[in-house]
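Key result, reporting period 2: structure in, sequence out.
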């Protein structure tokens, strides 16, 4: 109970400091912090359409947050979710290019998840085989994934009718809004269900126990007959599944385009947003979901902040960066 209270206090302190610095930056820049924060945090809760849109924003962040959390549980600092999101989205686009009709949907999930897992296997093998730091390898893989996806969307999978995006998922294969007039699709319950399954996996499965023990103390894990290398491999693979799922859902379940933007605007940064969600949620699947909802409210609120207060959208990203900074400083202090 003391640990949970301390964690809640630390999170609250990081949020207060991040918003305080954000207030100063807004004021220096000539914007009104009070009206900006009101539009950012209150307006999305004032209308159910806005709130459902915030939940839609939260879904991919919850999934990439799970990727980072699984890495932390195994003693890894896995920031490869960004590249794996690109691969998941690329797999969905490739499926739309290859097939038509409802058959695209299962193929999109299969291809997207397989590509994401294969992409994560490179840093995983490098970590196990040669001891390569996963931060370095995943950053490099993120950039390779970015440019590979850009090239694919610009050439082979380009939409001849709309060159600014990829080929579209055919209508019969789209996960359309569950509530008409909103962005709330099946992606939201799928993301939250994934978090529940990860929770069950970590808490009750043998491999969940092995991952936790290996991450906490690899030497002790070996004394119990657990091979930390295998735990690392499983954590990478399972994390890539959730990240790849985020990429697939951004293509098959994100109106109105149901495609991948040529500049990857609809998937760019989701992996890094997941790090914020994971750190705010203290790496716990339930905490990650709650944190992603909070970040989704901020993301939806950014649009209202720009319209109502004239404050640039980018200030939300500034505050998210400050949240990570202050949470990281608390970890260094320990």
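The corresponding designed sequence is given below.
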């Amino acid at each position: 109970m003391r640990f949970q209270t301390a964690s809640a206090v630390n999170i609250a302190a990081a949020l207060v400091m991040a918003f305080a610095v954000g207030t100063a930056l807004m004021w220096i820049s000539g914007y009104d912090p009070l009206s900006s924060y009101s539009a950012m945090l209150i307006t999305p809760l004032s209308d159910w359409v806005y709130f459902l849109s915030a939940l839609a924003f939260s879904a991919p962040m919850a999934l990439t947050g799970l990727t980072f959390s699984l890495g932390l549980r195994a003693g890894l600092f896995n920031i490869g979710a960004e590249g794996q999101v690109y691969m998941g989205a690329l797999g969905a686009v490739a499926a739309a290019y290859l097939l038509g009709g409802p058959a695209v949907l299962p193929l999109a999930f299969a291809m997207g998840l397989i590509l994401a897992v294969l992409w994560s296997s490179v840093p995983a093998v490098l970590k196990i085989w040669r001891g390569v730091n996963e931060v370095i390898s995943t950053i490099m893989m993120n950039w390779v994934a970015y440019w590979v996806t850009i090239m694919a969307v610009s050439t082979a999978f380009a939409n001849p009718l709309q060159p600014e995006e990829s080929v579209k998922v055919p209508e019969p294969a789209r996960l359309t809004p569950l509530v008409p007039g909103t962005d709330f699709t099946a992606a939201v319950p799928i993301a939250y269900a994934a978090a529940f399954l990860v929770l069950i996996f970590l808490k009750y499965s043998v491999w969940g126990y092995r991952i936790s023990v290996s991450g906490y103390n690899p030497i002790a894990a070996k004394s119990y007959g657990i091979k930390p290398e295998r735990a690392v491999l499983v954590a990478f693979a399972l994390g890539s599944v959730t990240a790849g799922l985020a990429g697939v859902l951004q293509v098959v379940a994100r109106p109105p385009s149901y495609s991948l933007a040529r500049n990857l605007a609809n998937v760019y940064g989701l992996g890094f947003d997941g790090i914020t969600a994971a750190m705010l949620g203290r790496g716990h699947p339930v905490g990650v979901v709650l944190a992603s909802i909070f970040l989704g409210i901020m993301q939806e609120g950014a649009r209202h902040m720009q319209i109502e207060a004239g404050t640039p959208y980018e200030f939300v990203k500034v505050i998210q960066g400050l949240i990570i900074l202050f949470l990281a400083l608390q970890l260094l202090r320990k």
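Residues 1-31+312-334 form one domain. Confidence is low (pLDDT under 50) at residues 1-6. This case is discussed further under Risks and Mitigation.
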